[in-house]
Automatic annotation (TrEMBL):
Keywords, comma-separated and alphabetical: DNA-binding, Transcription, Transcription regulation
UniProt xrefs under Gene3D superfamilies: Homeodomain-like (1.10.10.60)
Organism this protein belongs to: Labrys miyagiensis
Ranges where the HTH araC/xylS-type domain occurs: 124-222
A Pfam match: HTH_18
Full protein name: HTH araC/xylS-type domain-containing protein
Lineage: Bacteria, Pseudomonadati, Pseudomonadota, Alphaproteobacteria, Hyphomicrobiales
Amino acid sequence: MAVQPGIASILPVGFDETETEIVSPLECLYIFLSPSVTAASSLADFDVDPPRAELVRAPRVSDPLLKEVAAALHGIISRPPEPTDRLFIDSASSMLAAHLVSKYSNISRRAAPPSPSLSYQKLTRVLDLVECRFADAIGLDELAAEACLSPFHFSRMFQKATGLSPHRYVAERRVQEAKSKLAEGRLSLVEIALEAGFGSQGNFNRIFRKHTGLTPGQFRNEHRGSRT
């Protein structure tokens, strides 16, 4: 099997690749997806008994979605961890599982059942849960269960309804809470970081700046200036 930049190879569990040819210097990212994840997707997303769904070997495929997800995961492992990483990785795993089953399995030509919808009532329950728990570690499975959807369908429906992925929504809710506390001026930056769910001041500084273009200290100083 020849390995080239931008090319992916899908190997089912138990498949032993005996020879690999690397044609030029490159960086490789190996993603190991638990069989339980693809099994869950087979049942929840395609209404197929998990034992009947098997991934097939697909060497040297050019798949834009796989490339996009791999780049995002590479970005996560290349920087210090952030509190919303768990939500993103859960979403990426569900997306990958559904994509692999739909395109690279023995049931790939079978039409998927109609996608369920995220009703106003379901969305409200999820948003209420986030509102109560945004400072805690929230997993995608927990949010999806609140909406009675599989993680894969929930991620798609949530983004369609709100314009944001679940992990982005939670991150922005934490930033919103931090802005409010910074404006009050009562708590230290460390206290705000912990109360808003950032885990540490380092994460707080990095994520807040990514979302606002300012450090928490700069935001607080600007707010003070606007009140004088």
